[in-house]
Amino acid sequence: MKVFVIGATGVLGREAVPQLRAAGHEVGVLDRHTTSVFDVDQLTAAFTGYDAVLNLATRIPLSAKAVLASAWAENNRLRTEGSAAVAEAAIRAGAGRVVQEGISFVYADGGDRELDESAPIKPVGHIASSVTAQHNVLKHPGGVFLRIGMLIGGEAQSPPVLVGDGWMSVVHPADAAAAAIAALDAPAGIYNVGTPVLKRDTGITRLPKFFGRFAASFEVFGRSQRVVSTKLTEATGWKPRH
To answer: Pseudo-torsion of CA 73, 79, 190, 223, nearest 10°?
Structure first.
């Protein structure tokens, strides 16, 4: 299969490209000097002749500034405007499959319940753009959206903050990349991507009032999300190895 990768130099892309090549796929990558991820015409030209597109591009803020809404502006634009341009260009270019990365943090707090892809979501603040990306990619008849857990291990950076003592879905970047590749052969739709979930106990269960407007950002990381990836495993055989 000829697969075009967007975000090839990112945490997921650096894992996905060698895995694709090892599996015998022909790989093309986005050159940001000549092709904008926001330009449909340029993307259409780049995608022409490819069977599938993996959109793994993100701009996740890693410093303490991650609690500021403004720090997420570029990442939000990639997931809103960028994902829309990618999906439209893939349709125009005749690429039969588009796989879009996203996050599992959109789920509402589920306590100890297992959360599959039909569980309620609560997209607030900077995570809302992930739901927009989901809507955009599913406009493509071969669109697949991945709700990926927190990346832990490999080249992934530690999250800026974790609160609460509930369940958390995590996944190694190599396993998340393998899931994106497995999704090339999955039916169109939404899939969770994570390892068997972990319980955490950071000793912080409530946010001080003085956090004020930052509380919404912290609240996202404090939800109990016992996310399960059974659907992807049953559809493709994918299982985490790390």
So the answer is: 0
- Using CA atoms, how far apart are residues 192 and 181, in angstroms rounded to an integer? 14
The answer to whether the predicted template modeling score (pTM) of the entire model surpasses 0.85 is yes
φ and ψ at residue 99, rounded to 5 degrees: -110, 125
- pLDDT by residue for the chain (242 residues), tens only, comes to 999 999 999 999 999 999 999 999 999 999 988 999 999 999 999 999 999 999 999 876 565 555 555 666 787 898 999 999 999 999 999 999 999 999 998 999 999 999 999 999 999 877 889 999 999 999 999 999 999 998 888 877 665 555 567 888 889 999 999 999 999 999 999 999 998 777 765 544 444 555 555 555 567 777 889 999 999 999 999 999 98
Between CA 140 and CA 212 the distance in angstroms is: 40
Evaluated on CA atoms 19, 16, 102, 164, the torsion sign reads positive
- Which helix (H) or strand (E) is 84 found in, with range? helix 83-93
**Six-digit token string for 154:** 């490999």
